[in-house]
Amino acid sequence: xxxxxxxxxxxxxxxxxxxxxVTVDALVDGVHFDxxxxxxxxxxxxxxxxxxxxxxxxxxAPRFALLSCVLPPAxxxxxxxxxVSGFTALAASCRLHLAGGNLTRSPGPMMVDVTVVGTVKxxxxxxxxxxxxxxxxxxxxxxxxxxxxxxxxxxNGTPPPAAHSCVxxxxxxxxxxxxxxxxxxxxxxxxxxxxxxGLADAVRQVAAASGVGAxxxxxxxxxxxxxxxxFTARGADPVIEAISGGDDYELLFTVGARRRGRLRxxxxxxxxxxxxxxxxxxxxxxxxxxRGAADEPLPPGFHHFx
Amino acid sequence: xxxxxxxxxxxxxxxxxxxxxVTVDALVDGVHFDxxxxxxxxxxxxxxxxxxxxxxxxxxAPRFALLSCVLPPAxxxxxxxxxVSGFTALAASCRLHLAGGNLTRSPGPMMVDVTVVGTVKxxxxxxxxxxxxxxxxxxxxxxxxxxxxxxxxxxNGTPPPAAHSCVxxxxxxxxxxxxxxxxxxxxxxxxxxxxxxGLADAVRQVAAASGVGAxxxxxxxxxxxxxxxxFTARGADPVIEAISGGDDYELLFTVGARRRGRLRxxxxxxxxxxxxxxxxxxxxxxxxxxRGAADEPLPPGFHHFx
Lengths: 306, 306
Description:
2 copies of one chain form a homodimer.
Chain A: E1 10-12, E2 18-28, H1 40-57, E3 61-71, H2 77-93, E4 97-105, E5 111-121, E6 136-140, H3 145-156, H4 165-171, H5 177-185, E7 191-194, H6 199-210, E8 213-217, H7 225-233, H8 238-244, E9 251-255, H9 263-266, E10 274-281, E11 286-289, E12 296-297
Parallel strand pairs in A: 3-4, 8-11
Antiparallel strand pairs in A: 2-5, 3-5, 6-9, 6-10, 7-9, 8-10, 11-12
Helix pairs in contact in A: 1-2, 1-5, 3-4, 3-7, 7-8
């Protein structure tokens, strides 16, 4: 990096023969997280994870980030240090460097704005608009854990002493950087999007951008076991809760029939499960299909607590 | 632009054989501007001008911007539209395109975060650290107008019906994009910084980064005539007010004796005045010199109203 933090701006070397992928996300206390039950490390981790997940959904490799923090006067210094440490730990794990930033005080709530710049090879960028009728719909990992974890935290007020795996999934989501990169590189996916606002929302968005419909098989959806137990114990429908809850940061993607063989490589040696949960159709309907029941419309997407 | 707003991230084509220059700045209502007397167009203009000025100070050409807005629920839609129009008008005048953004509600004050990415040719980036003893210190344009304009607005509460030129300078600062570019391209400047926090602050920062001292000639400082009249009428010292006030967004730069001839080209056909205001020295002192008086230390830099 020719010029670093401390000058008017940072100077970075662009990567050759690549396109750049840029994304910005703002997280506001009381809207996207709640400092009452989110430790500062988790805020720092999440602020970066959200943007990394956007890059993963484009099939891009992260290069550098800019961090802009708006801090309330009452934020203790150790909290700020823990916040930065949560951010930098995730950045280091992706070999992403912090190219610059901005720090300001505010009379309002804590606010974190993260810009991430990545690269993608030409014709390897994944978009939401490439799905065709007949393409199969896949999701990475398991879903619902973050939504259950958030409910646990909201109920308890503070993190439980022995944190439930769902709480960890909510507090420290792992963006699917490597999987997104592999899906783009080998051109396995025809469309891709991350699940920041829930699986139901992602299916709707990909279908709308691609001009297709979708049938989602309720029984095929990979729901986190801890989340299923939690939702069931509260008398809720685990499928509806899992697909309408946000914050999972898994990837939804579509694959044409002739490219299904390419998925093997994208599994990254089995480190990430890829589950077929439905198919794209030629009409405009986006529905959830359960064994022995009439098709139901997908529930609306998740909107952050406000 | 291969992929635009609406997907998970934006994809842009990098410029060949150039380095990238990136900067991010946050503006918070009540800290960096005050919605009570700053019209929404001016907030949009200023949010971008601040970052463009940082790029100018690096000698970089702006390429694209990302705009992240955190809006209070009470913000009327016409105000938001006027804000966006202020932003896009300045962007269009610099041929800068808006590559992406983020929009979120907040229980707190209005907050705008702008990331700008630009390019600079190798070995043409201007930094704060290149000044040497004997280099002459220059400033673009005239200073003090923005500080006077802010005082006028703070006093009146609302913009005066026939806006004073100082008020216009405060509300719609013009970043020195072209001058910065020319200073970098022809290697006229040894160091450069913008005046966002005032001339006194900029001199201190360049001196510290370069390991030099500085003597500023008080009588040479180009003070806006309207600002001088305003400060004098209030019994204040126009020099001290002008160099400690912020928001001018002019450039301070240093030039080695043998490169002074190159300044002619950087004047951009006389569109911008360049004034010699002092010289870098070999000791660590940073002082203001007035005719017939003992050297005095430069006043501290401007810190936004809080």
